Amino acid sequence: MTAGGRGATKGVGVLVVIMVVLGVQICSAQISRSSFPSGFVFGTASSAFQYEGAVKDDGRGPTIWDTFSHTFGKVLDFSNADVTVDQYHRYPEDIKLMKDMGMDAYRFSIAWSRIFPNGNGEVNDAGVAHYNNFINALLANGIEPYVTLYHWDLPQALEDKYTGWLSPQIINDFAVFAETCFQKFGDRVKHWITFNEPHTFATQGYDLGLQAPGRCSILGHITCRDGNSATEPYIVGHNLLLSHATVSDIYRRKYKRIQKGVIGMSLDVIWFEPGSNSTEDIDAAKRAQDFQLGWFLNPLIFGDYPTSMRSRVGGRLPTFSPSQAALVKGSQDFVGINHYTTFYAYHNRSNIIGATLNDTIADSGALTVPFKGLKTIAERANSIWLYIVPRGMRSLMNYIKNNYGNPLVIITENGMDDPNDPFKPIKEALKDEKRIRYHNGYLTNLLASIKEDGCNVKGYFVWSLLDNWEWAAGFSSRFGLYFVDYKDKLKRYPKDSVQWFKNFLAS
Question: Model pTM?
Answer without folding.
Answer: 0.93
